[in-house]
Amino acid sequence: MSTILVIIALVVLVGLYAVTIYNGLVKARQMAEEAWSGIDVQLKRRADLIPNLVETVKGYAAHEKTTLEEVVALRNKAQSVPTGDVEGRAAAEGQLTQALGRLFALAEAYPDLKANQNYLELQTSLETIEGEIQMARRYYNGAARDLNVRVESFPSNLVAGQFGFSKKPYFEIANEADRAVPTVKF
């Protein structure tokens, strides 16, 4: 009788331990998804500013059509990446960031544009959003790291495998060329 009670107690303890691990994995997954949502919101805010910025620059630098079209095309490309494709979105957003850098570099050749209040406000807003994107990205990568550690660590990896938990990719710049400072030629 006492052997049966010990076995039942052990089964209950193992079950409670598995439930605790499962709940921790669910929490880590939800934190990563919430963090991705934060990045998505900031990227949407940036994407919403771009048409206004392009229109403002277009009035001063109409002959810079190629750069303006590139920014719009890359914005549309970034917006069309499926929601769950972190790596694809990171690559598209990296290309967009480079194109925006070239767009801001254009302003150096147009003193009237640099002095335009609307342009300055858009540039300030975009710089603020870029900072918020960086913070959101760090938060997401931390949440993804926490989930990934749980998914790979023993014994939680046993529970993770049983219930289909998987690692989250980091939101980072994949292409080394995207990390470089853009070259601007006039």
Automatic annotation (TrEMBL):
<keyword id="KW-0812">Transmembrane</keyword>
<comment type="similarity">
    <text>Belongs to the LemA family.</text>
</comment>
<dbReference type="InterPro" id="IPR007156">
    <property type="entry name" value="MamQ_LemA"/>
</dbReference>
<dbReference type="Pfam" id="PF04011">
    <property type="entry name" value="LemA"/>
</dbReference>
<keyword id="KW-1133">Transmembrane helix</keyword>
<keyword id="KW-0472">Membrane</keyword>
<dbReference type="InterPro" id="IPR023353">
    <property type="entry name" value="LemA-like_dom_sf"/>
</dbReference>
<protein>
    <submittedName>
        <fullName>LemA protein</fullName>
    </submittedName>
</protein>
